[in-house]
Amino acid sequence: MKSKTILVTGGTGFIGNHLVNKLISLNYQVVVIDDLSASDKTNFPKQAKFIKAKVQDPKLNKIIKSIKPEVIFHLAAENSVSSPVNKTLTSNVIGTYNLLNSAKNNQVKHFIFTSSAAVYGESKVFPIKETHPTKPISAYGISKLTGELYCQQFREFFKTSIFRFANVYGPGQSSLNEGGVVAIFINQLLNNKKPFIYGDGYQTRDFIYVSDVVDALILSLKKPQNTTLNIGSNSEVSILALLKLIAKLLNEPADFIKKPQRLIEIKKSLFSFKLAQETLDWQPTTSLKKGLLKTIEYFKE
User: For a FRET experiment, which of 44, 185, 231, 280 has its CA 20 to 30 Å from that of 244?
Assistant: First the structure.
């Protein structure tokens, strides 16, 4: 029996690469679309097929028709909160709509969209549940929320599963992307550089290890349904405490350079994963210390 064909956009990126390898290990036929603007094919598995393309390309419908995927994981995105607005709109809004429309035209059965904690903006109630009001404060957050709304518009044609990720970290994450604070701190400390901390360092984040995120995505594949789910650890860590923990694990001093607070940075993030637990029987299994040790090992190699 032929295995299911799955398309992963952004499949050479940090989370995408982990997902592609997991899908291959489960014997799915995997096709990746990526424009390689934020990644490369250094660790791309030979078992997957690669197509270089942008999701906003008008030729996308023709590409999807040739692939004939049953399921699409849409991870491709301009994921920097400080990216120019027009770049974010083109990739994250026009690109997502273009992909959804191509999925409709080609009888895709399940569309899985990766969103972000950024859709909530400055939250008032913690831990944040999926019913919390959405009020993004960055163009990136607005673009992700718009992508979610478009996904909901297409639910008459196929199942759409929406995942709002907390701060994902782990091996393979770029230390060049501002969202990858774990990778940035590890890389700077290993190279005897003082990390930057914006503001007082007491802003908190909910860190979730990449393999736990991939587990949630795989579970959604096995239970196609229209859902919007938070994927986080339900624990918060301040940026200052994170730096101190990483420094301790590396046996390095936790010295840092203080920079002015950024206006597009939220003060607190803490995710409830209760709905994901009820819906997918999912919960995170990797502690922050264990995940950091694995990430440090990757950077040392």
Answer: 231
Structure tokens at 237: 């860590």
pLDDT in tens, 159-212: 999 999 999 999 999 988 767 999 999 999 999 999 999 999 999 999 999 999
Cα–Cα distance measured from residue 182 to residue 296, given in angstroms and rounded to the nearest whole number: 9
Q: Residue 51: beta bridge partners?
A: 33
Whole-model pTM: value is 0.96
Confidence category of residue 55, pLDDT binned at 50, 70, 90: very high
Structure token digits, residue 157: 């044609």
CATH 3.40.50.720, domain 5-169+207-232+271-285, yes or no: yes
DSSP conformational letter for 30: E
| Residues marked as catalytic | 140
Residue pair 185/242 in contact (Cβ under 8 Å)? The answer is yes
Q: How far is the first Cα of the chain from the last one, in angstroms, to the nearest whole number?
A: 40
Measured CA distances, 266 to 117, 141, 197 (Å): 10, 11, 14
Core vs surface per residue 224-250: b (16+ CB within 10 A) or e = beebbbbbbbbbbbbbbebbbbbbeeb
**Tokens 């607070």 identify what position?**
261
Q: How far apart are CA 204 and CA 270, in angstroms?
A: 8
Which of 293, 264, 271 is closest to 137 using CA atoms? 264
Q: How many CA atoms lie within 13 A of 238 on its CB side?
A: 10
Indicate the domain borders of the chain. 5-169+207-232+271-285
CA distance 242 to 11: 28
**Do the beta carbons of residue 273 and residue 233 sit within 8 Å?**
yes
Cα 264 to Cα 215: distance, rounded to the nearest angstrom: 30
